[in-house]
Amino acid sequence: MILHVHPVNPQPRQIRSIVDCLQKGGVIIYPTDTVYGIGCDIFNHKAIEKICRIKQVDPQKAQLSFVCSDLSDLSKYARQLPTPTYRLLKRYLPGPYTFLLPASKEVPKILKSKKDTIGLRVPDHPITQAIVAELGRPVLSASLPGEWVESYTDPEWIYDAFNKQVDLIVDGGTGGMTPSTVVDLTDEQPVLIRQGLGSWEEGQ
Q1: Superfamily of domain 2-194 in the CATH hierarchy
Q2: pTM assigned to the model
């Protein structure tokens, strides 16, 4: 199923339909401020396993991240954020970044890496923010499987490729081609892991 949602002013009825799907353990493909991602409710173990099967990855090795609604929501899932780290997050979020942080006890075990870290996002996108706010908890954020990056900007192409594998495709218009910038904040100094859409300079 494909659901058309206004990219700037998401219709509340459409958002409720998406959240209803997530609450029932559904897997969705949805737009973010970077690229279209595949996601589910982070507390639905079976849905996470389904995404890992689609991506053909081991959940513990997949380094899966998830989307929070805002900085206060993010701080529930990251352990002991020092003041400088919190200030840095406040400077860059919402935005096209994934920050690796020490995972709190709130994070489902299946999503934690062997180093007990988690990737957290607060995308600057009305649809993503509306979904997470309505759901009341984070949504998994994983890249689509395969290498057809240019095709992944087109919701109709995404539908043709994945409609039999997922429960719902959220059409929020043409998507981006550049993934988020990934920064490791688990040590004293930030470390750039992947340069993506968000600008970043080492040592800031």
Answers
A1: DHBP synthase (3.90.870.10)
A2: 0.92
